[in-house]
Amino acid sequence: MSAAPGQPTSKGLIRSLVGIRGYLSVVVVAVHLAPFAIALVPLTAPFFLPVWHHAYVALDLFFVLSGFVITAGYRGVFARWPGWGAFGKFLWARLSRFYPVHLAVLAVLVGAVLGARAIGREIPHGGDLGVDLLRQITLTSGWGGADALTWNGPVWSLSAEWFCYLLIPLLQPLVLTLRTRTACVVGYLLACAIPLVAYSVIGFDDATITYAMPLPRALGFFLAGACLQQLVHVDRRLPALAGRWTGPLAVLGLALIVLMSTLEVSTMYALPVVGLTVLALGEERGWLDRALSTRSSMVFGEVSVAIFLTHVPWLLGASLLINPRTFPGGWGWLGIALLLAGVAVCGWLAFVLVERPGQRIMRALVKRPAKAPRASVEEKTEAAVESTPPSRDEARTGR
């Protein structure tokens, strides 16, 4: 079955790769919740301090996951230049996944800043209404050269991933030249080496890897995920072996992260091992795959983008009311619970009221080719964003 131009060619839905997104978003939320939680309940510092300083590796795994599923879905489309029309549809499909929520959150932030100024107050947002705001709107805030995270800070990672999407016509043919198991493994290691070597030289400090120079991080791990998917395509032994050891691989990766955080070494060095979890989950076997494939995990994964885009503005806004002064002593635990509940509520409301309707509107503006599949498997794997099920011919993952 050949794909229509601009449509993904992967077959089947790897449920665990949808489910894992939700749990990765929990880690990201924990990173940003940490300073508020420690202020409310100082006893939580032994837990939240390591999370705050070392759990950013969850974002790197997002990049690996994205490279894996994009390559699985569009390998046939971008094996060679498909034309500007197909490329534009690919970018539009990617943009529809997060841009409506991004713009909605940004509009709320701008409105809050302007409203506060009208009454003589100032809401800290780290940016201005000129260049900083323009970089957020154009998704270039994560391309490096910034002095700080501004407006909705986490958008830097979506911006960096957007940069990878723009390079897909160049990156995909390069990855598809890897025709042997050895070539794919070497490609994976070299891709992981891009950020590890770069930041070993210029530093792993938060400023460098998030807003001053984040592209080596995004591009390297995105390519690593693409190489893992190419390995699935050219070889069965190593992916099958990884699939049999999914649980131990995940435990080993977590142990490496804990060890490196204890030794005060960048947890990014654990990514060559942690990234293999994506390859293993792609085999759809074992207890970890089953745990990540439940209905609740799938729903969690679907809402992950909305949670990611709304949680920092919520935490910053809610902290004006939920802080050690208003929730002193033992009441701090209630404050943490309210912050977490707000994260969930804001994420769900953004998903239901903005993300899904906005996505439908954006995709309705681009008509599907007459013979296009009813649903995009890659899009479903990346967050189950299509509302229609895959066709009968898309029953499996093309292995």
TrEMBL record:
<feature type="transmembrane region" description="Helical">
    <location>
        <begin position="245"/>
        <end position="263"/>
    </location>
</feature>
<dbReference type="Pfam" id="PF01757">
    <property type="entry name" value="Acyl_transf_3"/>
</dbReference>
<feature type="transmembrane region" description="Helical">
    <location>
        <begin position="55"/>
        <end position="77"/>
    </location>
</feature>
<protein>
    <submittedName>
        <fullName>Acyltransferase family protein</fullName>
        <ecNumber>2.3.-.-</ecNumber>
    </submittedName>
</protein>
<keyword id="KW-0472">Membrane</keyword>
<keyword id="KW-0812">Transmembrane</keyword>
<feature type="transmembrane region" description="Helical">
    <location>
        <begin position="155"/>
        <end position="176"/>
    </location>
</feature>
<keyword id="KW-0012">Acyltransferase</keyword>
<dbReference type="InterPro" id="IPR002656">
    <property type="entry name" value="Acyl_transf_3_dom"/>
</dbReference>
<dbReference type="GO" id="GO:0016746">
    <property type="term" value="F:acyltransferase activity"/>
</dbReference>
<feature type="transmembrane region" description="Helical">
    <location>
        <begin position="214"/>
        <end position="233"/>
    </location>
</feature>
<feature type="region of interest" description="Disordered">
    <location>
        <begin position="369"/>
        <end position="399"/>
    </location>
</feature>
<feature type="transmembrane region" description="Helical">
    <location>
        <begin position="299"/>
        <end position="321"/>
    </location>
</feature>
<feature type="transmembrane region" description="Helical">
    <location>
        <begin position="23"/>
        <end position="49"/>
    </location>
</feature>
<keyword id="KW-0808">Transferase</keyword>
<feature type="transmembrane region" description="Helical">
    <location>
        <begin position="98"/>
        <end position="119"/>
    </location>
</feature>
<feature type="transmembrane region" description="Helical">
    <location>
        <begin position="183"/>
        <end position="202"/>
    </location>
</feature>
<feature type="domain" description="Acyltransferase 3">
    <location>
        <begin position="17"/>
        <end position="350"/>
    </location>
</feature>
<feature type="transmembrane region" description="Helical">
    <location>
        <begin position="333"/>
        <end position="354"/>
    </location>
</feature>
<feature type="transmembrane region" description="Helical">
    <location>
        <begin position="269"/>
        <end position="287"/>
    </location>
</feature>
<dbReference type="InterPro" id="IPR050879">
    <property type="entry name" value="Acyltransferase_3"/>
</dbReference>
<keyword id="KW-1133">Transmembrane helix</keyword>
